Amino acid sequence: MSRLDVRPSRLTFPFVLKSVVGLGDKWLGGMVHGGILKMGLEFDGFVRVSLVDMYAKMELLSLALQLFDESPERNKLDSVLLWNVVINGCCKSGILEKAVELFEAMPERNLGSWNSLINGLIRNGKVDKAVELFEGMVEKNVVSWTTMVHGLSLNGMHEKALEMFFNMIEEEGVRANDLTLVSVLSACAKTGALEAGIKIHKYILGNKFRLNAAVGTALIDMYAKCGQIQSASQVFRDTKEKDVRTWSVMIWGWAIHGSVEQALQCFEKMKLTGIEPDEVAFLAVLTACSHAGLVDEGLKFFDSMKLDYSIEPTMKHCAVIVDLYGRAGQLDEALRFIQCMALTPDFVIWGALFSACRAHKNIEMAKYVSEKLLQLEPKHSGSYVFMSNIYAGVGIWEEVERVRTSMKDKGAAKDTGLSHVEVHGKLHSFVAGDQAHMHTKEIYSKLEEMTNRAREHGYIPETEWVLHNIEEEEKEDALGTHSEKLALAFGLISTGPGVVLRIVKNLRTCGDCHSLMKHVSKLSQREIVVRDIKRFHHFKDGICSCQDYW
DNA sequence: GTAGGGTTAG
């Protein structure tokens, strides 16, 4: 055997270059490029495409473009791939004008060209342009559809993403694949669209898709985030090929539903199965501890991360620890932890302590922490809202006004509370004080009736949750139209007795809404499931699953 | 040798 037999050839380089991309090693890429030049293969069509692709994927766009420009074949037919990889590179680097220009200039296009550009546009927030292009396609394949489903979801348009998916399978008769399913299930999870999720689950079963790790994980996450923790657990059992993400979403699911025991058990079982926890798995188990007030357990996991698995805690892990101490009322320990941590505490860390200051009404520390917050993000409305909430919570209205004025001066705006409720498979959204819904009148009168009945049974509006310094009655009004209450009222008038109401809120639910929900669950004999930004509240018969610890 | 995917704060 001569050495010639193992010399790389024009057929070897594409594979080598692909591996280089996988490794992400720019220096190695340069070396391989050198080898190609030495062998005089730089003008070979196969090698050239791979080389341009490598540079494009490694975000060395100028090199990719240079090689592309120097390609003698680029204006011939059959050069589609060369154009496609360079278009893809432009999209990846966010140079969309160039991508569009190339797309328009190419001698011929294939489906990949369209899909690449659409993907580039939608990932960079150019949704309208992407939709326009998509709709103009003469021929679409499953990749085109998947790109749209995922892209719409990335831009927060989950309902549109779902519509797109059902249009694909029902109207166009295109068969989904794993990637489509994962994308659409993730949209359901983000928005809490249970009915749609169940329909997709049936589609998966009916079309005999294999429940591999990715599809299983997406399904589990969907059920968990739509409030169906038992279904999540069932799919978890059915998913045979579990990887660390599958376990993590399950642990996370138990955590947000307040089942600490299950979360911890799940974590231990994962380790016994031989799967090493990664930083997300630790984040999940720490969150479980924090939600349940298990301070010592949480700290043990935190230490184990470094000692047993050599995982350096990230800012997120530290934030959970601050939260862990903070919720349990150990504010001094939380502060000490921040002062000793290896990373420079960021906004999130101080924010976690700030929430704890609020919950435990420690105004002195809150003042100190709010300064830290405003140093880090002078325009961040959260700090102002936090601070004015603190003062409001203890009734110091002059300070509330002062903070709010200063907030206005700095041009910071409060995040809008937004809730939605799924009725007959369709999502209805509400903002605080919403008057835009077609059933506004009925919603408000139901709300009033609900509040009055609850009042007769001991509900007292917790006005400390309102920000403004206004008269007591007005405060009740401001509370009375929080978005989750409107969603609740709409849910009650639009569904029959016994139907479970599912509400999703983009912020934390306030104490007053929480209290009213408890009463309503008892008075109307309804199960109410509220998902707020961090966890689930299952209201039944006047009791909440969070046991008021949240 | 080109196009699309699953877990992460409060």
From TrEMBL:
UniProt domain DYW: residue ranges: 458-550
Ranges of the PPR repeats in the UniProt entry: 79-109, 110-144, 243-277
GO biological process, one term: RNA modification
UniProt GO molecular function: RNA binding; zinc ion binding
Lineage: superkingdom: Eukaryota
Transmembrane segments: none
InterPro entries: DYW_dom, E_motif, PPR_At4g14850-like_plant, PPR_rpt, TPR-like_helical_dom_sf
Keyword check for Ribonucleoprotein: no
Keywords: Repeat
Family: Belongs to the PPR family. PCMP-H subfamily.
Name of this chain's protein: DYW domain-containing protein
Source organism per UniProt: Coffea canephora (Robusta coffee)
